[in-house]
């Protein structure tokens, strides 16, 4: 540390040789590390086959009485904005990569691999130059572009909040085995392969599957309908 406060106004001491603190440095590094995966994820959300799941039941637009669901342009705009931002700043800080047709963002026909590659290339360059960038006053403008752009503009953080890469907890269609109410919440495994969790949200119930019968109850929620008998 150098006894100087973070130029970002965080009331924290700046890292030695840099103008920003450890917390701000970490935010930038995490954003750059996750950029390619976030862009790829956003582009994948508008693949030709889309469905909405309610309690493991798939509802699509392919049956009588169902119209085609409108395309959500949010992920497309978010991916395009993130790539444009990364490429702009990479080139601003000396990247000699031309980026060709991706210099102004992603085109409609861009594949997932191409989206990942261009975001990864720009983000990796910025990560490699981090110590140089964070030692100049321009790091403040760079952080503004990553985290606090003009209202209505997408950022990596805003995009992953709106379109998370892992499934959010949801209410299951099957009733709670104990109170018979449709109040079972399922917390999916997430990005790190944890076991899914099941819990009744009814305030006087709170049922969860016993660990010794977890696999049996998982069949009830995630597989063919099978209801294990609970001992009284």
> Class by helix and strand content?
mainly alpha
Radius of gyration: 23 Å
The helix content, as a percent range, equals 25-40%
Number of helices: 7
Dominant shape: elongated
Strand order of the largest sheet: 3-4-5
pLDDT below 50 for ≥5 consecutive residues: which ranges?
48-69, 224-232
Question: How large is the share of residues in beta strands?
Answer: 5-15%
Calculate the terminal CA-CA distance, rounded to whole Å: 63 Å
Give the number of DSSP strands.
5
**Helix/strand order:** HEEHHHHHEEEH
Largest sheet: 3 strands, antiparallel
| Total discrete domains | 2
Mean pLDDT: 79
What would your notes on this structure say?
Residues 48-69 and 224-232 have low confidence and may be disordered. Helix 1 packs across helix 6 (156-162) and helix 2 (74-92) runs parallel beside helix 3 (112-128). It is elongated and about 60 Å long. It contains 7 helices and 5 strands. It folds into 2 domains: 22-49 and 72-162; 170-222, no CATH class. The strands form 2 sheets. The chain has a 3-stranded antiparallel sheet, with no helix packed on it. A two-stranded antiparallel ribbon has the order 1-2. The protein has 232 residues and is mainly alpha-helical.
């Amino acid at each position: 540390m150098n006894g100087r406060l973070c130029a970002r106004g965080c009331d924290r001491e700046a890292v030695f040789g840099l103008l920003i603190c450890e917390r701000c440095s970490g935010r930038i590094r995490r954003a750059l590390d996750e950029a390619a995966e976030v862009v790829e994820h956003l582009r994948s959300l508008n693949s030709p086959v889309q469905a909405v799941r309610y309690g493991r039941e798939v509802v699509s637009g392919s049956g009588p009485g169902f119209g085609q669901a409108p395309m959500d342009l949010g992920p497309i705009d978010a991916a395009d904005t993130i790539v444009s931002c990364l490429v702009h700043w990479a080139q601003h800080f000396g990247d000699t990569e031309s980026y060709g047709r991706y210099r102004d963002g992603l085109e409609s026909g861009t594949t997932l691999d191409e989206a990942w590659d261009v975001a990864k290339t720009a983000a990796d360059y910025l990560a490699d130059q981090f110590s140089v960038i964070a030692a100049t006053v321009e790091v403040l403008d760079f952080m503004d572009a990553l985290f606090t752009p003009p209202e209505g503009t997408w950022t990596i953080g805003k995009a992953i909040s709106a379109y998370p890469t892992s499934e959010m907890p949801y209410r299951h269609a099957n009733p709670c085995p104990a109170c018979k109410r449709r109040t079972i919440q399922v917390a999916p495994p997430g990005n790190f392969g944890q076991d899914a969790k099941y819990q009744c949200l009814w305030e006087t119930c709170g049922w969860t599957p016993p660990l010794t019968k977890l696999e049996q109850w998982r069949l009830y929620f995630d597989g063919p309908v099978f209801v294990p008998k609970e001992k009284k």
